[in-house]
Design brief:
The protein has 164 residues and is an alpha+beta fold. The protein has two domains: 16-56, Arc Repressor Mutant, subunit A, CATH 1.10.10; 68-147, Lrp/AsnC effector binding domain/regulation of amino acid metabolism (RAM) domain (Alpha-Beta Plaits), CATH 3.30.70. It is built from six helices and four strands. Strands 2-3-1-4 form a four-stranded antiparallel sheet. A hairpin with a 6-residue loop joins strand 2 (102-107) and strand 3 (114-120). Helix 2 crosses helix 3 (44-56). The longest helix has 13 residues, at 44-56. The radius of gyration is 20 Å and the shape is elongated. One of its GO terms (biological process) is regulation of DNA-templated transcription.
């Protein structure tokens, strides 16, 4: 361990201030610490310290989110993946996760084993992607639904975590 880096407690509890900071950053990730501190009536140092802790804990990541259609992704799809034998589920998931088209991947309960959302340039690109997935050992079957139009693409609303 780097002797200059303090150990970080895992799963530290978040408080109202942490959530308020995250809400500002979700609206505009470039919001300055000074602006956040003024709006939340705390010091800039407090915001900086909390921000760094949220980064170190992996609660917050700094990314540039683009509008997929405006940069050339015109084919979105949801793919249900059936894995046989079931013991290969983790192996298949790890291989699919490495494919750059994948924007979401989860294990599921129910009829299929993995749920995959992808962004592709066009239908030909999607077909190539599906063929790659189908060639993975353990993939028994796939079912694809193309999204014709995305009406909402957003991060989670943190207000949903507040007790009613």
């Amino acid at each position: 361990m780097d002797k200059n880096k303090l150990p970080v407690k895992k799963d530290m509890a978040m408080d109202e201030l942490d959530f308020a900071m995250l809400a500002f950053l979700q609206q505009d990730g470039r919001t300055s610490f000074t602006v956040i501190a003024e709006k939340l009536n705390v010091s800039v140092g407090t915001v900086r310290t909390r921000f760094n802790r949220l980064l170190e804990e992996g609660i917050l990541s700094i990314i540039g989110r683009v509008d997929p259609a405006k940069v050339g992704f015109h084919c979105y799809a949801h793919i249900a993946v059936f894995v046989r034998p079931a013991t290969l589920k983790e192996t298949v998931a790890k291989k699919i996760a490495r494919l750059p088209e994948v924007s979401f991947l989860a294990g599921t309960s129910g009829d299929y084993d993995l749920e995959v959302d992808v962004m592709c340039r066009d239908n030909d690109h999607l077909q190539t992607f599906i063929n790659k997935v189908a060639a993975i050992e353990g993939v028994h079957q796939t079912k694809t639904a193309i999204y014709f139009k995305v009406y909402k693409y957003a991060p989670p609303d943190l207000d949903l975590l507040k007790a009613e």
